């Protein structure tokens, strides 16, 4: 009971920051955690309805509006149930207890004699005489600090653990539902006129010629930022393309040349530190030194980034699919020289969000266009901007030097990780992290990158193996400079690190003649970790002696996300002919006490498919002049004909805290596929993606 | 220069240049926002509509080419027996994450089932060749399609 309050409650300590009771017999809860396609609004509503003892349809949820919703930082890092859900549960339980006391006085009964259903309190066994939240609203003060109250109290059947349908799906299958669909009175469509690359400067431009393009109403320029405005969206799209030829650019400084990721990263200056050390290394009977890598990966959302903005009577309102409405407000105000209270940011759904994409950039660009033109604006990015102007997930290179002793136990484990920051969000660290703010006149300087420290970690996330090794040393080589713009993408460094650790575990198991599952289990005391591995292996009918080769194989991968969130084990079955095809995936997940099982399963299934796509197909290409992957033809993702069958087993832990699960499958999937490929064709793939060319090259080299 | 088209059963005169992509006529002129921009090159399928019952990517279809034709968007699916069954199955199975790609997929699947009431898995995959989903909802989408096919075959609406 005396445990520290979740950070969301420390930052927003008053109960009325979390909910209000409405006269129409509903309750509105306020949340800083926003819908990104992950189903969080439904899960938060379930938690709130549960604790308040109201039916889901009696509950409204207002999320991500800087005027009314609490500042809960970013909706990121698989923290929305862990922190946002925990905060909402405590706040609503506290509200329920205050209303229960008022109801007890009203009904002249003891609190312990109350029951509560659909927001109505009554004496147990006498439901006819009742009083609801709405009648008691005047008698209960909510401008009080949120406090933990004892669990229990009067309330109806639990909604937690039930697969309630998502609140946002029906609207999204009915028409207008996204930020892209906003229509403001007098609104113009805006498109940015991009230069050849980030950091290019305008030498000269032909403003009159741009204004004369068909349908163009206005053109906004600030420094190296230019956008065209038109009444019709089609005209804005065409004009932005045509205008590229009406601006002369001085190219940006050349980027570091492309090449194999390991060599590219190691050629750049790094700041090195040992971030974990335990035990003493002992030489073993079997030793392995291996290097692994993962390229820069694009968010590649199906919808492009978009935002609407309007400046009216000195107040700027922005509609955005940002993950951090309050940070976006603060950064926009700072960059435009406005007081923060003159800016409102309202969250609206965008296409799938898997991390720090261009949502904040486009929101600031819309704000710039609206404030400079004086017109309401909807600014939408092109496919090229989505693929080439959003930040990318950082590349990573990992080297492991390990040994197994005569007893078959790991006696040495030295891992080195080379990567960049995995967080360069607006509001993270010093300065302003908004692309157009670096381009406008006067520009703000681009802040120096700073990575997220352990225990969560950025590039070194999940760099510490969860296994009980007699020795473990983790070195992190942080590289400030990157050839392409980088920030947070689902699972951050965990994808590369878990891929490397779990690949190496298989290499060690094989070299010491042990089964991959048994080898992991003998290094794991954590019962929940063991349970997911055992569950995945059981579901997949794992056999230590299963024959591999002949193009078919199976492999396992495991991690506890951030070493403190959800546990996930994955068994993948693959077929390797010219290309790698994943046939079936079995995933077992322990996410603590589950709020919405179907929503969780949906997140895991999606995480599995996305990770297979990263593993088999994806890499951002660049050269000295900029990003080369600018269309779906250059940057293919997994298609319907390449998706495996997926079985998800959820290991519920009633009463335990919820553990963030949205990102937990990524690393285990990559490793399971790599281990399955090794089992299928006897070739170890240590660099991603596993394209047909790479596989062919490895087979050739092995012959 | 208005171009005559029928959209969701209603005759419309669209006053736009003939080379305007159908996508923007639907979104801007007719305010039908369920047809979504994804790439502008016909690669991703987010903008898929039905033209005379066939799936078409509206982002690279010029307005002039559909003059006099009958167009169905997601907003008109409820009036179509097959479209309604497909959409209902997607909702029942919660076959969406961000939902941005789904409207286009509903259109592609409805067009397929109009032409072939019992398509096998290969025909379904072929029909979805030009639809991308980034959230990884594929497995559920395929399950929802199977449910819709069963329902329609059983005569349940």
Describe this structure as you would to a colleague.
The complex is a heterodimer of chains A (703) and B (157). Chain A has 703 residues and is an alpha+beta fold. Chain A folds into 3 domains: 7-159, Aldehyde Oxidoreductase, domain 4 (2-Layer Sandwich); 179-252 and 305-381, 2-Layer Sandwich (Aldehyde Oxidoreductase, domain 4), CATH 3.30.365; 268-296 and 392-422 and 457-702, Aldehyde oxidase/xanthine dehydrogenase, molybdopterin binding domain (Aldehyde Oxidoreductase, domain 4, 2-Layer Sandwich). Chain A has 18 helices and 28 strands. Chain A has a 7-stranded mixed sheet, with helices on both faces. Chain A is globular and about 80 Å long. The mean pLDDT of chain A is 95. Chain B has 2 domains: 3-74, Beta-grasp domain (Ubiquitin-like (UB roll)); 76-153, Orthogonal Bundle (DNA polymerase, domain 1). Helix content of chain B is 36%, strand content 13%. In chain B, strands 2-1-5-3-4 form a 5-stranded mixed sheet, with helices on both faces. In chain B, a hairpin with a 2-residue loop joins strand 1 (3-7) and strand 2. In chain B, helix 2 crosses helix 3 and helix 2 (81-92) crosses helix 5 (138-153). The model of chain B has no long low-confidence stretch (mean pLDDT 96). Chains A and B meet through helix 5, helix 7 and helix 16 of A and helix 1, helix 2, helix 3 and helix 5 of B.
What's the layout of helices and strands?
The complex is a heterodimer of chains A (703) and B (157).
Chain A (H helix, E strand, L loop, with lengths): L6 H5 L7 E4 L3 E6 L8 H13 L6 E5 L16 H28 L6 E4 L2 E4 L2 E7 H4 L32 H4 L15 E5 L8 E5 L1 H5 L4 E7 L2 E6 L2 H11 L3 E4 L10 H6 L4 E9 L6 E9 L11 E7 L2 E6 L4 H12 L6 E5 L11 H15 L3 E4 L2 H6 L3 E2 L2 E9 L5 E10 L15 H5 L31 E8 L7 E2 L6 H18 L4 H6 L5 H13 L12 E9 L6 E10 L3 E11 L6 H20 L5 E2 L2 E2 L17 E6 L15 H16 L10 H11 L1
Parallel strand pairs in A: 2-3, 7-17, 15-16, 18-22, 20-21, 25-28
Antiparallel strand pairs in A: 1-2, 4-5, 5-6, 7-10, 8-11, 9-10, 12-21, 13-19, 14-15, 14-17, 19-20, 23-24, 24-25, 26-27
Helix pairs in contact in A: 2-3, 13-17, 16-17
Chain B lengths: L2 E5 L2 E5 L7 H8 L18 E4 L2 E4 L12 E3 L8 H12 L9 H14 L5 H7 L10 H16 L4
Parallel strand pairs in B: 1-5
Antiparallel strand pairs in B: 1-2, 3-4, 3-5
